[in-house]
Amino acid sequence: MDAVRTLNTLQTNASCLEEVKRQRSDPQAQLEAMEVYLARSGLQVEDLNQLKIIHVTGTKGKGSTCAFTERILRNYGLKTGFFSSPHLVQVRERIRINGKPISPELFTKYFWHLYQQLEEFKDDSHISMPSYFRFLTLMAFHVFLQEKVDLAVVEVGIGGAFDCTNIIRKPVVCGVSSLGIDHTSLLGDTVEKIAWQKGGIFKPGVPAFTVLQPEGPLAVLRDRAQQISCPLYLCPPLEALEQVGLPLSLGLEGEHQRHNAALALQLARCWLEQQNYHDIQELKASKPSIRWQLPLAPVFRPTPHMRRGLRDTEWPGRTQVLQRGPVTWYLDGAHTTSSVQACVHWYCQSLERSRRTDGGHEVHILLFNSTGDRDSAALLKLLQPCHFDYAVFCPNVTEISSIGNADQQNFTVTLDQVLLRCLQHQKHWNCLAEKQASSNLWGSCGPESARPGSLLLAPHPPQPTSTSSLVFSCISHALQWISQGRDPIFQPESPPRNLLNHPTANSGASILREAAAIHVLVTGSLHLVGGALRLLDPSMSQ
């Protein structure tokens, strides 16, 4: 699609991105620049008030919270807009109406309208085009206004205070999901600093809700709310709402999704009440929490629309399971320490439920990648208790050639960088495995040899005390080796001939072909999960 290829030119290329990081300007000025772009596009900040926005930030679970909230409100017969990031397979996923990505025709129409509008301001002294994410944010506002949605659920990109979505002045309600460490180069290196950034979406007189946080960041959120004159409420746990009604069924798996659902219910309730919907029965009004020094949000009986909304929520790539014959794919885009901990808990619970009783041999595989400034060694250490037989690493590149796959092109990193990063992941994993086997081996971990142009970059010979590890040059080759043709839907036309060049890959292939069951956890990056889903679920590319 020409529109997507042109959109990709707004990505900052890798060398320029490093220069921007070194010379990062005042973040407040960046937010003001977003308002200038909005005006150039033909809108004023006040126009966004028509969208009756629900604005949601957080470190873990903000996307799932938005998905729950949108699905609940759609059940009321409302026309919903939903802006989220990143996309998994197609960029159109970021802008949804009534839960579905906008059509290619609508995407093309609004993209070129906005692009041409901004091009008119091109001159020698100003950059005419905003960056990739800013452009999509502007485009989402235009789509939602022109398509006359009843409300818009807007997920913050990074942080909150200086995120380009924060040009919103009068949302109906704001939400903060679970906080943790992420994007430290932009947001700060402590949860308290990150909480300050997240609290930047609070607005005077606009109600906001948060799930229970650790004491330090919760105190920061409370102080931010007081400074801004924002009424901030603490969500009671889902159990409190279930005690006054029947148990709630969630469409998303994982114990951590209950926190997201509790927040979504409060956001939906607050939005509905402010729009004069009166079918919600409050059983306990909000009251101060002496321990947390915040008022508790009301306990109420979820309506049938709410219950169905929670049950019917779909959010691909988050605690998602694809059962394909003997191969089961577990996909979760967890990429922070807290979200990986939740992912491990979910994965182990899922394995327990699916445990075979016939004694057949099962193989457990990790497919992992991590990007940005994240501590991959810390994330991999959290995954060790899963006792994988193989750890497989690859960059977030679906195929070796990305021609024809404009939705997943990424100009912000070079191929050399992503391959070297995968080799570092493998080195971390091997050191962790060897340290677990014997503390005396920690000092002997050296750099792995690699041939950067090869399909199988750096296999680690099988050891009796450690997981065998492999690095592949793209997601497709990793999936082909893992599935060995046994996934009835993922059937590549011509598997590469050098897929089994190394003894570890060769011997592992024999084991995989004979295994009664293969369990694969794909995690560490939403982009990795998206690339895998593009291959495993062709319907997402249609």
Automatic annotation (TrEMBL):
It catalyses: (6S)-5,6,7,8-tetrahydrofolyl-(gamma-L-Glu)(n) + L-glutamate + ATP = (6S)-5,6,7,8-tetrahydrofolyl-(gamma-L-Glu)(n+1) + ADP + phosphate + H(+). Its EC number is 6.3.2.17. It is found in: Cytoplasm; Mitochondrion inner membrane; Mitochondrion matrix. Keywords: ATP-binding, Cytoplasm, Ligase, Magnesium, Membrane, Metal-binding, Mitochondrion, Mitochondrion inner membrane, Nucleotide-binding, One-carbon metabolism. Pathway: Cofactor biosynthesis; tetrahydrofolylpolyglutamate biosynthesis. A monovalent cation. PROSITE patterns: FOLYLPOLYGLU_SYNT_1, FOLYLPOLYGLU_SYNT_2. SUPFAM superfamilies: MurD-like peptide ligases, catalytic domain, MurD-like peptide ligases, peptide-binding domain. Its cofactor is a monovalent cation. InterPro entries: Folylpolyglutamate_synth (IPR001645), Folylpolyglutamate_synth_CS (IPR018109), Folylpolyglutamate_synth_euk (IPR023600), Mur-like_cat_sf (IPR036565), Mur_ligase_C_dom_sf (IPR036615). Catalyzes conversion of folates to polyglutamate derivatives allowing concentration of folate compounds in the cell and the intracellular retention of these cofactors, which are important substrates for most of the folate-dependent enzymes that are involved in one-carbon transfer reactions involved in purine, pyrimidine and amino acid synthesis. Belongs to the folylpolyglutamate synthase family. This is Folylpolyglutamate synthase. It comes from Rattus norvegicus (Rat). The gene is Fpgs.
